[in-house]
Amino acid sequence: MIAFIKGIVDKVLDGSVIVDNNGLGWQVNIPRSYLSRLPRVGENVKLYTHMQMREDGVSLFGFLSMDEKQLFELLISVTGVGPKAALSILSVLAPDQLIIAILSDDTLSLSKAPGIGKKTAQRVSLELRDKIKSRETENVTDPQQHLGFNQEQRQDAIDALTALGYGRTDAVKAVMETALTDMKTEQIIRLALRKLSGR
Question: Which of 87, 91, 110, 157 would disulfide-bridge 188, Cβ 3.0–4.6 Å?
Answer without folding.
Answer: 157
